[in-house]
Write a structure and sequence with these properties.
The complex is a heterodimer of chains A (101) and B (486). Chain A has 101 residues and is an all-alpha fold. Chain A has one domain: Helix Hairpins. Chain A has three helices and no strands. Chain A is elongated and about 55 Å long. By secondary structure, chain B is an all-alpha fold. Chain B has two domains: 269 residues, no CATH class; 215 residues, no CATH class. Chain B starts with a helix and ends in a 13-residue tail after the last helix. Classes of the chains: A mainly alpha (101), B mainly alpha (486).
Chain lengths: 101, 486
C-alpha cells in the first residue's frame, strides 16, 4: 500500500467518522465540528490523491483544497453565528425534535 | 449583419449575468440606504443580459467562454446551451417578480439585509447554470446554500432560525458528499471539465462510488422523498419572497446539476437506478400531496406541495426519452412560476390578516380578490389543467410513459393531479366562507397583489408558447439525439 493510498483511506475514515457524529450528536456545536471533520476528510483525500503523478504533485488538487477551505471557513462562521441566534431564541443549542409526519 | 448587431453578438452576455448581480450585491451592501434602487436596477440589467444571451444562442448555437482567457484544463470554462438558457430565463423572470414584490414586503431595516443576500443568491444561480466543470459547480452550490440559509434566517424567530440551521447542516452534508464524488472522479480521469470527463469516463468501482456520493448529495439538496424532511420547515418559516425563491429556484439548481451529470457523465447508470429514482419520485408525489392536504397552515401546505412537485421531475429518469426530459423540464418551469405566485399570495394573506391558518381565511376573497385569483390560477397549473404550463408538462410525461410502455407512471400523474386539486379547492373554499376569527386587516401594497397575479399568468401562458420554448430547449442538444422532441 502506497503512502498516498493510506492517507486517502484515512481521509475516507474521517469523512465517515464525521458523518456518524453529525447524526448521533444533538448539540449544534458538535454537529458543526462533525461537518468540519468531514470536510477535512475530503480535503485529505484530495491532497493525498494529488500525488498520483510522478515527481511533483498535481497543483490543481491543491488549488481545489484551498478553495474548499475558504468555503468551509465561511460555512462554519455562518453556522456558528446561526447557532448563537438559535440558542438566544430557544434557550438551547439543539434542534427541536421533528414534528411527527 | 450590420455592425451594431455584430458587436452585440460579441458581448459575453453569459459572463455579465454573473458579474452584474455580484456587483449589485456588493454595492447594495456598501450603501444600504440605496439598496432598493440599486437592487431593482441590477435585476432589470440581469434580465436584459439574459435576453442578450438568448439572442446570441439563437443566432450562433451553444456558447463556450474561457473566463480570463484560460482554457479548459487549467482555467474555468462557462458553457451555455438550451438547457442553461431556459434555467437562466426562469431565474430572470421569477427573480424580477420577486424583486418587485419584495419592495412592498420588506421594511427598510430588513431590506438592507435582503438585497445583498438575494443578489448573491442570484449570482450563484446564474454561475451554477453556466458552469462547465464539476468543481465550479460545487463552489456555486455552496455559495447558493449559504445565501439561501441566511435568507431563511432573515425572518427571525425560533421557527425560522431552527429551520435555517437544519437547512444549513443538510446543505453542507449534501455538498460534502458531492465534493467527495468530485474528488474521486478527478483522481480517476484527471479533469473536472464535464465535456472532457464525458469523453474519458468509463464504468469502474471508483466511478460508481463517485456517482453514488454525488447523486445522494444532490438528492438531499433537491429534497427528494424521503430526504425531504428539512424542506417544509425551512420553506414555510422564511419570509414570503424568500419562500418563493427557495421553492421556485434553489431546489431546482441541484436538480439541474443532477440532470447534467446523469445525461453527460453517467450514461452507463443501470436501468434499476433510474427505476429507483422514478419510484422515489412517485412516492414523493403521493406523500407530498397527502401531507399537503393535512396541513393547517397555508405556507406549510404550499411547502409540502413543493415536495410533491419535485417528485414529478424524477419520473423522467425511468422514461429516459427526449419527450420525458422535456416534460420534466416543463414541470420545472411551470412549477417555478406557479409556486412563486402561490407563496406571494400566501405572503399577501399573511400580511393582510397576520396569520395563515387555512380554516380562518374568513372571506379573504372580498378583500384580496387579485391574490385569490392568483392563487387559483397558479393552482390550475399545479393541478395540470389546460391551457396551463403544468398541463403541457404532464401531457409530455404521460406521452413519454405510454411510448416507453410504462403506463403505470401515468397513474401517478393522475393521482398527483387529483391530490393537488383537492387542496387547491380546500383553500379556495375557505377563502369564500365566513369564520369565527376576524382578520386584523392591514392594507396590502398593490405591487404585491399584481406581481402575484402576473406570476400566475406566466404559469398559464407557459402552456401557450410550447413550440417556441421547445425550440429554445434544443439549442446545443442537451438531451442528445436529433430532431424535434415528441
Amino acid at each position: 500500500m502506497s503512502p498516498a493510498l493510506l492517507y486517502a483511506l484515512v481521509g475516507v475514515g474521517l469523512f465517515t467518522l464525521g458523518l456518524y457524529a453529525l447524526i448521533v450528536h444533538a448539540h449544534l456545536l458538535r454537529k458543526i465540528l462533525a461537518i468540519n471533520v468531514m470536510a477535512s476528510g475530503v480535503f485529505l483525500v484530495l491532497v493525498a490523491l494529488a500525488a498520483r503523478t510522478q515527481g511533483t504533485p498535481d497543483p490543481v488538487a491543491h488549488a481545489m483544497v484551498i478553495t474548499g477551505i475558504v468555503v468551509a471557513v465561511s460555512a462554519t462562521a455562518l453556522a456558528l453565528a446561526l447557532m448563537l441566534r438559535v440558542r438566544a431564541a430557544t434557550g438551547r443549542a439543539e434542534l427541536a425534535e421533528e414534528p411527527l409526519e | 449583419m450590420p455592425d451594431v448587431l455584430l458587436s452585440i453578438a460579441d458581448i459575453p452576455w453569459g459572463v455579465m449575468t454573473i458579474v452584474l448581480p455580484l456587483a449589485g450585491a456588493m454595492s447594495s451592501f456598501l450603501w444600504p440606504r440605496r439598496a432598493l434602487p440599486l437592487g431593482l436596477a441590477t435585476a432589470l440589467a440581469i434580465v436584459i443580459c439574459v435576453a442578450g444571451l438568448g439572442w446570441q444562442l439563437v443566432q450562433q448555437g451553444a456558447q463556450r467562454y474561457a473566463v480570463g482567457g484560460w482554457g479548459a484544463p487549467l482555467g474555468i470554462d462557462l458553457y451555455a446551451d438550451g438547457l442553461s438558457l431556459l434555467m437562466l430565463m426562469m431565474t430572470a423572470v421569477v427573480g424580477l417578480g420577486i424583486s418587485i414584490y419584495s419592495c412592498g414586503y420588506f421594511n427598510l431595516e430588513r431590506a438592507r439585509y435582503f438585497w445583498p443576500l438575494w443578489m448573491f443568491l442570484w449570482a450563484a444561480l446564474n454561475a451554477l447554470f453556466l458552469s462547465a466543470d464539476i468543481f465550479n459547480l460545487y463552489v456555486t452550490l455552496e455559495l447558493l446554500g449559504l445565501a439561501a440559509v441566511a435568507l431563511v434566517a432573515l425572518a427571525g424567530g425560533a421557527d425560522a432560525l431552527t429551520g435555517a440551521m437544519r437547512y444549513l447542516l443538510v446543505s453542507l452534508l449534501g455538498s460534502l458528499c458531492y465534493l467527495l464524488g468530485v474528488t474521486l472522479l478527478y483522481h480517476s480521469f484527471g479533469s473536472v471539465d464535464i465535456a472532457i470527463l464525458a469523453e474519458r469516463v468509463e464504468s469502474s468501482p471508483t466511478v460508481w462510488a463517485a456517482m453514488g456520493l454525488m447523486i445522494t448529495g444532490l438528492l438531499l439538496k433537491t429534497a427528494l422523498f424521503p430526504l425531504h424532511f428539512w424542506l417544509p420547515s425551512a420553506h414555510a418559516s422564511a419570509p414570503a419572497p424568500v419562500s418563493a425563491l427557495l421553492s421556485a429556484l434553489v431546489v431546482k439548481a441541484s436538480f439541474y446539476i443532477l440532470l447534467r451529470l446523469w445525461l453527460e457523465l453517467f450514461p452507463f447508470a443501470s436501468a434499476a437506478l433510474a427505476q429507483l429514482l422514478g419510484l422515489l419520485g412517485a412516492a414523493a408525489v403521493l406523500w407530498g400531496g397527502l401531507q399537503a392536504l393535512r396541513q393547517t397552515q397555508l405556507k406549510m401546505l404550499i411547502a409540502y406541495s413543493t415536495v410533491a412537485q419535485l417528485g414529478y421531475l424524477f419520473l423522467a429518469f425511468p422514461l429516459a426519452s427526449i419527450t420525458g426530459w422535456t416534460g420534466a423540464l416543463y414541470v420545472l418551469l411551470s412549477h417555478a412560476a406557479a409556486k412563486t405566485a402561490m407563496f406571494m399570495a400566501a405572503g399577501n394573506i399573511l400580511y393582510f390578516g397576520g396569520h395563515d391558518r387555512i380554516v380562518d381565511l374568513d372571506r379573504v376573497v372580498q378583500h384580496l380578490p387579485l391574490t385569490i385569483t392568483a392563487f387559483a390560477l397558479a393552482g390550475i397549473s399545479i393541478m395540470g389543467l389546460p391551457p396551463s404550463g403544468g398541463f403541457i408538462a404532464k401531457w409530455l410525461l404521460l406521452e413519454a410513459a405510454i411510448l416507453s410502455g410504462q403506463w403505470w407512471w401515468g397513474i401517478v400523474l393522475i393521482l398527483g393531479g387529483l391530490l393537488s386539486a383537492a387542496w387547491v379547492f380546500k383553500v379556495v373554499g375557505y377563502a369564500f366562507t365566513r369564520s369565527e376569527v376576524p382578520h386584523e386587516a392591514r392594507a396590502v401594497p398593490a405591487a404585491m397583489e399584481w406581481t402575484a397575479l402576473l406570476m400566475a399568468m406566466v404559469a398559464i401562458l407557459l402552456g401557450l408558447f410550447v413550440p417556441w420554448l421547445l425550440a429554445l430547449m434544443e439549442i446545443g442538444l442537451p438531451f442528445g439525439g436529433v430532431g424535434s422532441a415528441g
